[in-house]
Amino acid sequence: MRVDRRSAVPLWSQVLDDLRGRLSAGEFAEGFPGDVELTSQYRVSRQTVREALRRLQQEGVIERGRGRGTFVRQRPVEQQMGTLYSLYRSAEEQGFVQESQVRFLEVRRDPEAAAMLGRGPADPLVYLERVRMIDGHPVVLDCSWLPAQLASPLLDADFHRTALYQEMDARCGLRPDAGWERVSPVLPTPEQRALLGMRVRSPAYGIERLACQGNLAVEWRHGVIRADRFRFVARWGGGRVDAAFESPSGGRAAACSQPVPAATAEVESPPQRRGGRRGSAVGG
User: Fold this and answer.
1) In this predicted model, what pLDDT tens digit does every residue of 256-276 receive, in sequence order?
2) Minimal CA–CA distance to 210: which of 252, 271, 174, 261?
3) Helices 35-42 + 46-58 axis angle, to 10
4) Contact, 59 vs 65, CB < 8 A?
5) Could you tell me if 273 and 143 are in contact, meaning their C-beta atoms sit under 8 angstroms apart?
6) pLDDT the model gives residue 118
7) Given the DSSP bridges, would you call strands 77-80 and 62-65 parallel, antiparallel or unpaired?
8) CA 94 to CA 24: how far, in whole Å?
9) What residues does 161 pair with on adjacent strands?
10) Which of 132, 195, 212, 232 has the greatest number of beta carbons closer than 10 A?
11) CA–CA separation, 31 vs 70, rounded Å?
């Protein structure tokens, strides 16, 4: 593209508009050009290019760092709060490709996970640990515990391209319809960072969920989500504009009788096979 120097539109704005179009077309999937290359392409000054890139950075479209160059920021998945949701369905509906790398799908015994599900400390549990991929990039480390008495048919499922709740319904006759979820900021462990491809000091969410069918606890989930690839959205209406806070375990939100526990000690899967710290509630 050659900019129009006779136009009343500033040169940096013309470059910016053209870059937006090229980004929307997916032209920079393999890498974003450097300042010198863009200066040559548009036949403008380096200052003009830098102003256009500064605007893109302010918009959150690109990321720039000294010694690291310029990178296109990946579009995050948006998830509405206040409902039992499926990451698989949310990602697919927003045009992403969602798939999972299954790290573990087996029967385990874990006293704390069993307690969360209202089971005895020695009761067998189905444990499913997945790295959830969005467009081929790791976004979520998901660890789910389910009573083996109810969920043992899941041991034969292929979770590469399906949702947990879909398989629970089809194979076990379980349809979660109540529960609670908690989102907290966390510092991922080195193992979690490696699994999710995160740099040191990168932001992350810890999410945990107890999903119930009526008053029967059917899944406890915990793990870690990359905060740069996932964001939560709350919508309200119908007069719900007051500033009062409601207890997460009371009022309209609690059909499941299990209370929301205090966030205290971290919960990990057994040694040698650690997955996510306490924290993931991305359904499905």
Assistant:
1) 666 677 654 344 444 344 454
2) 261
3) 110
4) no
5) no
6) 96
7) unpaired
8) 15
9) none
10) 132
11) 8
